């Protein structure tokens, strides 16, 4: 539970290298220290400080300011232009090339990224950024399937959501697969793929024909992980839920497949 609340360390690509004060890494260090204090005292209320938002039109380097999205324009297959409202005729007043850090909740996960606005520096009443939507790879072992389902359903319930999802479900046998009817329904959507990895099954011939094409026997190992990653349409963001041993194995296999930890979220 505490691990899920831990702030995510920024990747090198999130830093503009322009010597910003504070840098995105400064913000991370501050939030990490706050998380460590709260964890040591077992008091989650101490984390609320980072959730506070300013209502001022001017950006504050110490807090996040809430802005409304006024429009979203799709520019390419996976790139969108977002326009955010600024109160009145206010302006961000950023220096040339300076970035901002956007934080929001996407499919139940808090996401934080750095962006350089593409709108003119003197734009009044709004600012714009380009955001590229990626692909999700979900790795679930047993009951680790549970937190994946609300995310999947939120994607399939939104007709305008074009997120590609690959769900890999790990179970001992076919008989122990949870929620088969629901998973079958989800797999019918054009942007959802579901694979099964059955550690104690020895032959696909014993399975119903509808499962034979998308099921692997044995364990989810490094070679199979590379095969799944290579089958993704683009570099995925990975969600992992299972035992601690499962999470450790998946982290190692993902790294071998070229997926670094900053592109993973562990439930």
UniProtKB/TrEMBL annotation:
<feature type="binding site">
    <location>
        <position position="113"/>
    </location>
    <ligand>
        <name>FAD</name>
    </ligand>
</feature>
<dbReference type="Pfam" id="PF00970">
    <property type="entry name" value="FAD_binding_6"/>
</dbReference>
<comment type="similarity">
    <text>Belongs to the flavoprotein pyridine nucleotide cytochrome reductase family.</text>
</comment>
<keyword id="KW-0560">Oxidoreductase</keyword>
<dbReference type="InterPro" id="IPR001834">
    <property type="entry name" value="CBR-like"/>
</dbReference>
<dbReference type="GO" id="GO:0016491">
    <property type="term" value="F:oxidoreductase activity"/>
</dbReference>
<dbReference type="InterPro" id="IPR008333">
    <property type="entry name" value="Cbr1-like_FAD-bd_dom"/>
</dbReference>
<dbReference type="InterPro" id="IPR017938">
    <property type="entry name" value="Riboflavin_synthase-like_b-brl"/>
</dbReference>
<feature type="binding site">
    <location>
        <position position="115"/>
    </location>
    <ligand>
        <name>FAD</name>
    </ligand>
</feature>
<dbReference type="Pfam" id="PF00175">
    <property type="entry name" value="NAD_binding_1"/>
</dbReference>
<dbReference type="InterPro" id="IPR001433">
    <property type="entry name" value="OxRdtase_FAD/NAD-bd"/>
</dbReference>
<dbReference type="InterPro" id="IPR019180">
    <property type="entry name" value="Oxidoreductase-like_N"/>
</dbReference>
<keyword id="KW-0274">FAD</keyword>
<dbReference type="InterPro" id="IPR039261">
    <property type="entry name" value="FNR_nucleotide-bd"/>
</dbReference>
<protein>
    <submittedName>
        <fullName>NADH-cytochrome b5 reductase-like</fullName>
    </submittedName>
</protein>
<feature type="domain" description="FAD-binding FR-type">
    <location>
        <begin position="62"/>
        <end position="180"/>
    </location>
</feature>
<dbReference type="InterPro" id="IPR017927">
    <property type="entry name" value="FAD-bd_FR_type"/>
</dbReference>
<dbReference type="Pfam" id="PF09791">
    <property type="entry name" value="Oxidored-like"/>
</dbReference>
<feature type="binding site">
    <location>
        <position position="130"/>
    </location>
    <ligand>
        <name>FAD</name>
    </ligand>
</feature>
<keyword id="KW-0285">Flavoprotein</keyword>
<feature type="binding site">
    <location>
        <position position="132"/>
    </location>
    <ligand>
        <name>FAD</name>
    </ligand>
</feature>
